[in-house]
Amino acid sequence: MRTRFFVVAILISMLGGCSSIPLSTMWKLHSFNKKDFVALDPSSLRVRVSVPDGSPLDPVDTTFEVKVKAGEKAFDRTFKLAEVARSTFEETHGIFTRRTTTWHRYVLMMTDKSMADFKRLQAFIKGPGKKDALFLVWPPLKGKPAKTTKAVFSIDLQLSKKDGYFTLFDHASYDFEPAGPEYHKKKAVQKPGA
Tens digit of pLDDT for each residue in 21-41? Predict the structure, then answer.
């Protein structure tokens, strides 16, 4: 029986807002089924998170999760990730005023224990019965970026070396109150109604 894998979701450590999911990703995950999941090689799975300068990722606490519903039972499996590579790249944007932003890209893979746990989950998914599953990526930042009210990030996922990466979220963002001391000093002296 076909297993339905819903569109990948994301949880943000500081509460989330809106995100941008490419249509190609929605289609890819819509067609992803039980056979595809069981055939995954966990050693090839990679999570690639990109954040702009000033918004450092916390790779140690970044996790990949799978929520499973099988009949009346529902459970979560959390898989720890380990950083395997880090790089930077420049992105130019703007139409009339061109600006360049430096981004930091983190590549993470499952730990040995996570791979063993993932294989046990695959064995369960392979069993009889209808099962629904939801992928989640938890990419916490190391605190709130200073002097800004918005955090921006992109996440790519590699399920196999053959197919390479596909984009889960492209320049997704969420809002929060900035942590910079200048902001809070200004806010403290701001007049009512200002």
Answer: 555 666 566 667 788 888 999
